[in-house]
Amino acid sequence: MDNTDAPSNTMVLKFKEDAALTEMMHLRVSSLQRSGQKRQDGERLLLPNEAIYRLDFPTQELQFSRWYFSLKAYGRTTITGISQHWTPDLTNLMTRQLLEPIGTFWRNAGDPEDSPLKWLEADMQEFGERIAELAKVRKVMYFLFAYKEGAEAANVSCSVEFTQ
């Protein structure tokens, strides 16, 4: 899962945190709490251990190849794709807009730091293929990253490789 040099017909896209969008979504939670209001029916509020990331697609003709994921120390990171029906500047995130399968990478607390990461290979393959399929109709895609069991954003790096 470590990032190595990719052949010339491949493209490695790194997930980038959208700090402004993450902050806007955390402010939505704070606003609801301060005013005593409830979320909309079906609305997905961002938890403190979650952030919004994005992939920008320079081309729409991509085939999924592989994941590059690194996690320093231990913990669990889940990545959930968000459907194209979400316009973050206009609408709240709804649970129906979250895609399956999700990607999960982890290393258990008792494992040595240099031990290989664990992941569900079939789900990660399907998730990567789904991203490539959605890239055909969009220039950007958003993702919900959740850090659990000791994982932190500063200790995680994630990208995906496609062939053109």
Features:
alpha+beta, six-stranded antiparallel beta sheet, 2 helices, 9 strands
Give the SSE map.
Blueprint: E1 10-14, E2 16-17, H1 19-35, E3 50-56, E4 63-71, E5 75-81, E6 103-107, E7 118-119, H2 121-135, E8 140-148, E9 156-163
Antiparallel strand pairs: 1-9, 2-3, 3-8, 4-9, 5-6, 5-8, 6-7
From the spread of the alpha carbons, the general shape counts as globular
Give the integer mean of the pLDDT values: 90
Radius of gyration: 16 Å
Which percent range fits the helix content?
Answer: 10-25%
Which regions have little confidence, pLDDT < 50, spanning 5+ residues? none
Q: Span between N and C termini?
A: 20 Å
The largest sheet, given as strand count, sense and whether it forms a barrel, is: 6 strands, antiparallel
List the helices and strands in order.
EEHEEEEEHEE
Oligomer: single chain
